[in-house]
Amino acid sequence: MKGEWGSIAELAAAVAAGRTTATEQVHEALTRLGRIDPAPEGINAFISYDAEVAAARAAEVDGAIAEGRGAGVLAGVPVAIKDNFCTLDHPTTCGSRILEGFRAPYEATAVRRLREAGAVVVGKTNLDEFAMGSTTENSAFGPTRNPRDLTRTAGGSSGGSAAAVAAGIVPAALGSDTGGSVRQPAAYCGIVGLKPSYGRISRYGLVAFASSLDTVGIMSRSVADAALLLEVVAGADRFDATAANIPVPQFRDALEAGLEGLVVGIPREYFPEELDPGIASACRAAIDRIREAGAEVREISLPHTRYAIPTYYLIAPAEASSNLARFDGVHYGMRAPDATSSAAVYDETRSIGFGAEVKRRIMLGTYALAAGHYDAYYARAQSVRALITRDFRQVFDSGVDVIFTPTTFHLPPRLGEKVQDIYRQYYGDIFTVTANLAALPAISIPVGTTEGLPVGGQFIADRWDEVTLLRAAAALERLLSE
Amino acid sequence: MGMRYEPVIGLEVHVQLKTRTKMFCGDSAEFGAEPNSHVCPVCLGLPGSLPVVNGRAVELGIRAGLGLNCTIHETSVFARKNYFYPDLPKGYQITQYDRPICTDGWVDARLERGSATVQRVRIRRIHLEEDAGKSLHDRLPGKTAIDLNRAGVPLIEIVTEPDIVSPAHARDFLTRLKQILEYLEVSDCDMEKGSLRVDANVSIRPVGSKTFGTKTELKNMNSFANVERAIAYEIERQAAILDAGGVVEQETLLWDAARNEARPMRSKGDSYDYRYFPEPDLPPLVLEPGEVDAIRATLPELPDAKLRRFQEQYGLPAYDAEVLTATREVADYYEATARAAGDPKAASNWVMTDVLGWLNQRQCAISEFPISPEHLAQLIGLIADGTVSTTLGRQVFAKMAETGREPAVIVQEEGLSQIRDIGQLEAWVDEVIAASPVEADRYRQGNEKLLGFFMGQIMRKSQGKADPKQATELLKRKLSGA
């Protein structure tokens, strides 16, 4: 499903060589957006876009090329940005009412690097409020539809970015992945979703949900495109103390190396009986292809996986409860109109401004950090997180190069299909949260379809080893397209 | 209070560090600028912004710890202290909690002013943190205005053990502490500008009791004298409650210096649960090997060491040495003067009486004093070699302070050098003896005290310029009829 866009490298090369222009490419993206995006019938991938500003930015890129000032590796590539990144040309809403009227006076590092490489931001994409959710239905701006089946969700929380790429509006988009928010919607929409190692990409300007888990992610139509964008946005940043000061490899160089000689671990905990049978069989077929291609497929165990969900749902809400304290109606965004005291400004603004899921998590997290609860919940969760990390450490130390799993437990749910049981909904994140807890790089790529819906398979590699991760993913992508 | 109760006092001292920029961003930390002119996304707490530690602030924190005899920890951890307040834009303060950078220090402080008996006050911890903004209640009618220039200014908080035994002991501790921090050039320690702030925890217990009484916290003291007064007030208040059979309530009291009383601010009953947890946006603060030793090597001679050396090297009495080492600047000034003049005792007299007197009268710092140590030493030399009298020397000093010129020039231009011309001196001697024959007779009959009377007359005639030594000899000779 390559759609209308070719490879990003080719597109940028064509723009650089003058065979097409940024202006034409951006115009094409906006035309497609206008045709298929607007709610209620459209997919509603975008919260905001500004055709004039995008055209002006495209003209700047074209101008630079015309004047011989050089073309970046993303020259003229239209991109979409999840609306929890601060950008200069658009409002930043985080899918929440509470940021009503907020325009950031500064730009996220990842967005700046894309723009400096010549990419043009066409708009900001829909998400679950503050990235909390897995269907993009927790958005103050309406749900995003899955381009592969408009009656289903695009997943979440980066559902808007996933749908925008899957629908061919843009060839790539930024998302954020705290517990699977890039990989799961990528799987649901049939595209590539890359979550690099924690610390590989600066978080500066990404509105924090859970700071120790949040990762900037890349959504694209191929592994090669993801690798190219990763080269552009990765690397140390003086504005983010958690962005690692280590060299950024040329990830694209490894994409052709193939699977031969790699040891691919298959964790038995990731193929439970309850796994959707269509997903299970697509993933098992993919494993067969991996084995046939010359990799050693080895069954492994990650025994603490079963604690991953409770661990995640203590740490993430705890950090969120603190990170979201700044949305208090005092300094920016929405303020409850009739509040007469500072306490009332807080209470009423936050009551009106936040949606139900955000409030649930703030309360969960506040409880977990409260005096007398801290040791039992937050500190305990951090200890278990260390055990989960150790599971992976032992596997990689035993010679496994990369791990392969399904990305999701279920197929994309139908819009409005109420998940009555919040635990069941939370447990849907089981295959993706572990990489966040252990700070590991992971990628979801399409591995087949079932019932006409895409199935995602996930690779997980050792920390900082995006080279092996992308190598394996690119190899499987080739095998499956043959 | 009598001897029935003994007070138990601990202090928490917040000290703003003398850095150019803020704790976690690049804005100026300068005091007194136009409101909200030193702000950026980080200290405004804008969504997506991240803190980055100011290395200079860490260095100053370590200097303070070394100067206060602390253990410096190779690894310390920043934490979030969560609470809502309008001048706290993130909804939390970044501080250090269970792993501060310095612990286990001490300062010896006098039990009473002027007494030689010191008692050690242990310092439990020193941690790094950021200051909050300011709420301005008198700027906009009926509204509270927020100034965030101070938000993010680097602080250390110094927490003592409850080792302080009296209001005077507390005051002397603070005096020593301030002196040391000023020597270290860690802070301005200016209570009026809020760069040093003191909270006191006070409880009392029956003499000999091993258990602590209920403590109250005193805030809002704007001078060390007020700290002493407030603690004394609080001890009396608690004693009166206990004497009446009552119970001291744990609460926070605000000191009202105008009324000389402490009033309750809020009771601990409705105090916040700060929900401390490790700051996920900052990795643990790990010092480079050798960093502490490198900082130690740059420490200046501290007040105690300087005091001892001044006594030994310059033969100064303890009191003089103490006055001269009160600040590093005065000590340096004295030492430069003593060295240039080659007469430590004379230098000490001039600096203690004339220099400090001049500064005291004008309420200014020695950095603003117009006479250089070299010029003062020259003046001391002119007096020593008899060019000017001590009395005229004071006039020369005043002229020097006024004009900043060299003493020799002033002496010459103003004609202030001593008159040693024998003919002129004889003439004056003859004149005064002739004018007071009765006194001359009484002198000859043995009333030698009258010599002073005649010398006074000579000085008046000579406008103080007669060389007193020669004039005295001449006078004696002439009076005894030789």
Short précis:
Chain A has 482 residues and is an alpha/beta fold. Chain A contains 15 helices and 13 strands. Chain A has a domain at 8-254: Amidase signature (AS) enzymes.
Structural commentary:
The complex is a heterodimer of chains A (482) and B (482). In chain A, helix 2 runs antiparallel to helix 3. The longest helix of chain A is centred in the C-terminal third of the chain and has 23 residues. Chain A contains 15 helices and 13 strands. In chain A, strands 1-3-2-6-8-7-12-13-11-9-10 form an eleven-stranded mixed beta sheet, with helices on both faces. Chain A has 482 residues and is an alpha/beta fold. By secondary structure, chain B is an alpha+beta fold. Chain B has three domains: 289 residues, no CATH class; 114 residues, no CATH class; 58 residues, Arc Repressor Mutant, subunit A, CATH 1.10.10.410. Chain B is built from 15 helices and 16 strands. The termini of chain B are far apart. Classes of the chains: A alpha/beta (482), B alpha+beta (482). At the A-B interface, helix 9 of A face loops of B.
Write the layout of secondary structure elements.
The complex is a heterodimer of chains A (482) and B (482).
Chain A: H1 8-16, H2 22-36, E1 46-49, H3 51-66, E2 78-82, H4 109-116, E3 120-125, E4 145-146, E5 149-153, H5 159-166, E6 172-177, H6 183-189, E7 192-195, E8 215-220, H7 223-233, E9 263-267, H8 277-292, E10 296-300, H9 308-323, H10 342-353, H11 356-369, H12 375-397, E11 402-406, H13 422-427, H14 430-437, E12 442-450, E13 453-461, H15 466-481
Parallel strand pairs in A: 2-3, 2-6, 9-10, 9-11
Antiparallel strand pairs in A: 1-3, 4-5, 6-8, 7-8, 7-12, 11-13, 12-13
Helix pairs in contact in A: 2-3, 5-6, 9-11, 9-12, 9-14
Chain B: E1 5-16, H1 55-67, E2 71-72, E3 75-76, E4 78-82, E5 92-96, E6 102-110, E7 118-130, E8 134-140, E9 143-147, E10 154-160, H2 167-183, E11 196-206, E12 216-221, H3 224-243, E13 251-256, E14 261-267, E15 277-278, E16 285-286, H4 291-296, H5 303-314, H6 318-324, H7 328-341, H8 344-362, H9 373-384, H10 390-403, H11 407-414, H12 422-435, H13 437-444, H14 450-461, H15 468-479
Parallel strand pairs in B: 12-13
Antiparallel strand pairs in B: 1-10, 1-11, 2-6, 3-16, 4-5, 4-15, 6-7, 7-10, 8-9, 11-12, 13-14
Helix pairs in contact in B: 2-3, 5-6, 7-8, 7-9, 9-10, 12-14, 12-15, 14-15
